[in-house]
Structure to design on (271 residues):
């Protein structure tokens, strides 16, 4: 296993057998986001992009929370400058670039939701490809009713696509807590599991994903993201274009593995 801490000391990076685990590491504040943490998250995602040995990434939080959203302490203590809380309006925006990198990560991503995902923490979880959450936790969009701002960190893009407009509006306007079980029922997340089963479920998912073709996984992401705005005909064309690349590259190995009753061995190409 390779272990390291990002430059600002707020994110840990571990790499073992093709699985990169990125841990938000401010447990004293339920891993709330500040510039340091978001810079470190970007650094960890850059390390994944640069390392061809990484086949899947897991994003999680240290301690008893996943991510409680923006660190509001600076806003509470200062009456002059709240750019640290609303970084999208700052000249030094470390938040949006990190979310773009996460959403465009060159390998499949799993949010290991080990505790509360609130505000921007909800955005981080939903920017991942899959979310596996413990039953005892909840998701909440606190932006509107508590802070008087618009949901950000990609939440206004992710929520309606996953849960539908009505539920997205309710979460954004009312700020109600949505249990992990309800989130799974809504299609907001992939799976809700008993707390003690979290690590087993994440390991099972990573075991599948690290054997897959990264290129195929990325093209699946792109296809599903595009589907909500494409016409049916457009989507058929997009699928055909992806298959034109993937069938010559992967299909023979997949078919041979099926006939030989073994797992396929795909190369690690990402494009």
């Amino acid at each position: 296993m390779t272990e390291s801490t990002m430059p600002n000391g707020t994110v840990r990076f571990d790499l073992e057998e093709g699985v990169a685990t990125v841990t938000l590491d401010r447990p004293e504040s339920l891993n709330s986001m500040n510039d340091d943490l978001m810079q470190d998250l970007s650094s960890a995602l850059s390390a994944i992009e640069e390392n061809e040995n990484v086949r899947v990434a897991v994003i999680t939080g240290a301690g008893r929370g996943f991510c409680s959203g923006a660190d509001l302490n600076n806003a509470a203590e200062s009456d002059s400058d709240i750019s640290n809380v609303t970084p999208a309006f700052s000249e030094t925006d470390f938040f949006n670039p990190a979310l773009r990198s996460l959403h465009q990560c060159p390998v499949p991503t799993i949010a290991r939701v080990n505790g509360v995902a609130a505000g921007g923490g909800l955005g981080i979880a939903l920017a991942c490809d899959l979310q596996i959450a413990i039953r005892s936790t909840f998701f909440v969009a606190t932006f509107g009713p508590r802070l008087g701002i618009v949901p950000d960190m990609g939440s206004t893009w992710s929520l309606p696509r996953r849960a539908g407009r009505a539920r997205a509006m309710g979460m954004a306007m009312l700020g109600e807590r949505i249990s992990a079980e309800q989130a799974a029922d809504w299609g907001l997340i992939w799976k809700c599991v008993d707390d003690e089963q979290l690590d087993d479920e994440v390991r099972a998912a990573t075991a599948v994903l690290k054997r897959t073709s990264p290129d195929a996984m990325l093209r699946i992401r792109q296809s599903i993201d595009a589907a909500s705005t494409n016409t049916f005909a457009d989507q058929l064309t997009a699928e055909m274009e992806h298959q034109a690349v993937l069938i010559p590259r992967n299909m023979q190995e997949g078919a041979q593995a099926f006939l030989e009753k073994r797992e396929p061995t795909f190369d690690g190409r990402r494009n």
Q: What stands out?
A: The domain at 214-259 is CATH 1.10.12 (Lyase 2-enoyl-coa Hydratase; Chain  A, domain 2). Residues 232-259 form the longest helix (28 residues). The CA atoms of residues 106 and 159 lie 23 Å apart. The longest strand covers residues 11-16.
